[in-house]
């Protein structure tokens, strides 16, 4: 998912929109909507950390993301061409759903292998393995998306990506990722004490996530000028919030890379 699906979604957008006959503005707007889940990692992380489902902080969130991703890819695969042309926001919504799977599973797996690195002391091996497999997936997707789009059409890319996205449900449901279960009766309750103790972190994560989601909504409903005004305004607000909610080093680093 982190390699093949990520790269397919990254590279298929342009040939798909050319196939639909849509202009660059619509492509760029939908590209922004599609990648919004990556900017929402703050709110995803806050939610998964503070509110377990069925006793697990990761398992069921990963499965929900899996369902959304498969639904998004299936929607893109079966969406009629004319419907996609006339209701382009649907295309953005399906891409958004597909990216939710990649972003959420990437976030939670990164957190888990970082934890395992600290426990085992074998950080180099784990990071090397993860990024080797991710790079192999990226190369496979990059090498095939062009020929497939040119010879058959970009729609086939979504059909190819579909079973790859679907297969992650099996290891998730089987519990292959080690995770300690939260004992009842707190297995599905909001962990209020954790939120109170780390409220600044949760507030910052939720703020950035909501701001990103707002950009996706504005992008789908309003003109590029309104999108620009919203982006600049929210950037200023989030930057100011970071100065109050984050440590000085974190805030200044974030502003530098903004």
Question: What's the structural blueprint in terms of helices and strands?
Answer:
Layout: H1 4-11, H2 13-20, H3 24-34, H4 36-39, H5 41-50, H6 59-78, H7 81-86, H8 88-120, H9 123-151, H10 155-166, H11 169-174, H12 192-197, H13 199-221, H14 224-245, H15 248-257
Description:
There is one protein chain. By secondary structure, the chain is mostly helical. It has two domains: 4-190, no CATH class; 191-258. Helix content is 81%, strand content 0%. It is built from 15 helices and no strands. Helix 1 packs across helix 9 (123-151), helix 6 (59-78) runs antiparallel to helix 10 and helix 8 (88-120) runs antiparallel to helix 9. It is globular. The two termini are 27 Å apart. This is MFS transporter. The chain crosses the membrane at residues 60-80, 86-105, 156-173, 202-222, 228-246. One of its GO terms (cellular component) is membrane.
